[in-house]
Q: What sequence folds into this?
């Protein structure tokens, strides 16, 4: 895979094409691949920062950083995805490392909470996140809350 070009933008800084590509990739993964019917456009994007990784102008990895109080009491990272073509390439790890770095840069060195799909617990643990909840169901998928101190 070619080198990934990363950016982090507020909602207002996104171009219409960038926003379209983000929403398309989120729909591809969360709605189609995971067969999860939910309202992705949840009115949180406008207050969030958007971390995107591109290879040759193709969006291959994405996450959003939410300010404290929007989803959780803490700053949070959500909608974490890697396109099928980017899986097992290290793009997901780079995406999370970039997202954590940007979250700390934007909001300060505060704890970061995530609502992680249970099958990704080991991955997030390897980044320093600790499980802080029991398993719960969200949109038909097992999740846990995890916290990075």
A:
């Amino acid at each position: 895979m070619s080198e990934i070009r990363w950016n982090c933008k507020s909602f207002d800084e996104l171009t219409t094409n960038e926003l379209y590509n983000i929403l398309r990739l989120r729909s591809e993964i969360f709605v189609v691949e995971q067969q999860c019917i939910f309202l992705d456009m949840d009115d949180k994007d406008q207050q969030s920062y958007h971390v995107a990784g591109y290879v040759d102008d193709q969006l291959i990895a994405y996450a959003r950083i939410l300010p404290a109080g929007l989803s959780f009491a803490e700053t949070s990272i959500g909608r974490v995805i890697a396109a099928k073509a980017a899986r097992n390439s290290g793009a997901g790890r780079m995406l999370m490392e970039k997202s954590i770095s940007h979250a700390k840069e934007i909001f300060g060195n505060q704890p970061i909470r995530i609502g992680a799909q249970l099958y990704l617990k080991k991955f997030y643990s390897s980044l320093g996140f600790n499980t802080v909840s029991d398993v719960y169901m969200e949109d038909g998928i097992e999740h846990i809350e995890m916290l990075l101190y």
Remarks:
- The chain has one domain: 5-109.
- Strands lie at 5-10, 49-55, 58-66, 75-82, 112-117, 130-131, 136-138, 141-148.
